[in-house]
Amino acid sequence: MHFKFKHIQKIVGGFFLLSCIIVIILLVIVARGQKWLQAYVPYVSYFEEGKGLRVGTAVTIKGLDAGRIFSVDLGPDNRVKVGINVFRHYADKINKGAKISLIQPIIGSSSLEIVPGPDNATPIARGGIIPSLDEGKIDVKELIDNTTRLIENLKNPQGNLMQTLSNVNTATKRVANPQGDLMQALANVNTATTKLADALGAQKGTIGMLMEKRELYDKLNSAALRLDNVLGIIEESSPTIKDSISAARTDLEESEKVIRSLQKNFFIRGNIEKRMKEDSSLNFEGRAP
């Protein structure tokens, strides 16, 4: 049967076909813009809370649109389970070492940012889990509680800090004590050097003994130097006993004066020169004035 169309009908039909073509073109453009025709690879991630997470939230990689959230649900372990669709051509970037985090700007909508792992890492399988940075996030409330607890422990008179300070205070008093080991050691050195000087002045055979055991001078002088170093260290670490250290240094200086006077004693020098002539291996450089 042959149909005849009027001119007006042809015009209407032409506009209808043109409209359909335009609609189809617009749908294709919108579909491409919304990634409706894009192939996806699904993954899963877990978060401690679901604030800012909803279906349709954008997923980005380095700021580029890379997918969408397709599901948000509560997992069996009471964590928020998030289903993520990543564009297939970005699937090779989702590898071992990749992390995902929730970005919540002050202005604008939230998004999930994927940080790819190393280039040579093994890709995460389809449907695999992308670890979230939220899993290792520090709980601020817990941090404040721990800090408060630490401060309370420091204030506790029976706590480690107070006990340590008490021990330091006790040790400081012992060092400053005139009857303590340090002061007694200084007194012993002073007494020993004084007695040695007196013995030399008395000339009761002491010179011969000293020349036979001349290493006594070296030991005595070395001990004085070590003691001076020890005093310096104690003074730096314990400023509170500075007065006691100053007194100890005064005794030490007196002892050193005695040692120097012993080295300059003319009885010893004469015998030293004689012994040096007998034994050429002896060298007393720096002892003579």
What is this structure, in a nutshell?
It is built from eight helices and six strands; from the N terminus they run H-E-E-E-E-E-E-H-H-H-H-H-H-H. It has 289 residues and is an alpha+beta fold.
Overview of the structural elements:
The protein has a six-stranded mixed sheet with strand order 1-4-3-2-6-5, with no helix packed on it. It has helices at 7-33, 140-155, 160-176, 181-202, 206-212, 215-237, 242-264, 266-278; strands spanning 40-47, 58-61, 64-74, 80-87, 99-103, 111-115. 12% of the residues are buried. The protein is α+β, with helices and mostly antiparallel strands. Among the domains are: 40-136; 177-278, no CATH class. It contains eight helices and six strands; from the N terminus they run H-E-E-E-E-E-E-H-H-H-H-H-H-H. The protein starts with 6 loop residues before the first helix and ends in an 11-residue tail after the last helix. Residues 203-212 and 281-289 have low confidence and may be disordered.
Question: Would you identify the regions where 5 or more consecutive residues have pLDDT less than 50?
Answer: 203-212, 281-289
Number of strands: 6
Distance between the termini: 143 Å
Helix content: 40-55%
Task: Describe the global form.
Answer: rod-shaped
Content of β-strand: 5-15%
Number of helices: 8
Mean pLDDT: 70
Largest sheet: 6 strands, mixed
Task: Please write the string of helix (H) and strand (E) elements.
Answer: HEEEEEEHHHHHHH
Measured on Cα atoms, how large is the radius of gyration?
A: 46 Å
Q: What spatial order of strands do you see in the largest sheet?
A: 1-4-3-2-6-5
Structural class estimated from helices and strands:
alpha+beta
